[in-house]
Amino acid sequence: MLIARSIGLFVLAAFLEIGGCWLVWQGLRAHRGWWWVAGGAVALALYGAVATRQPSGDFGRVLAAYGGIFVAGSLAWGWIADGYRPDGFDVIGAVICLIGIGVIIYVPRGR
Questions:
Q1: Burial, 54: exposed, middle or buried (Cβ in 10 Å; 0-12, 13-18, 19+)?
Q2: How far is CA 41 from CA 17, 22, 71, 72, 110, in A?
Q3: Are 101 and 73 in contact (CB under 8 A)?
Q4: pLDDT tens, 8-61?
Q5: Which chain regions cross the lipid bilayer (predicted)?
Q6: Which of 99, 44, 97 is nearest to 70 (CA)?
Q7: What values do phi and psi take at 85, rounded to 5?
Q8: How far apart are CA 56 and CA 63, in angstroms?
Q9: How many whole angstroms from its chain centre is CA 4?
């Protein structure tokens, strides 16, 4: 159950961070206006709050593992929101990152 909660938090954090960055991108690069940028700032602040809810208290380890979710999530977001189609190498890279998450955050360690 703890791993499922952790994965859910990683996915929610990715949605907020990638979505927030996308909103800022749309506001500034696509000239959609400052309301989009403001929405992105709110989403990014919420991302930071969600990241603190991870069961592990090791900041560096949590953020390192989250990086893999960010990579895979960014490719998925680009595919869904912008029509970018990841190629085979994108998918292989994302899978490697997701395997890395498992090693970094979920492998038991003796303390």
A1: buried
A2: 9, 10, 20, 22, 39
A3: no
A4: 999 999 999 999 999 999 999 999 999 999 999 999 999 999 999 988 878 888
A5: 7-28, 34-50, 62-79, 91-108
A6: 97
A7: -105, 110
A8: 11
A9: 16
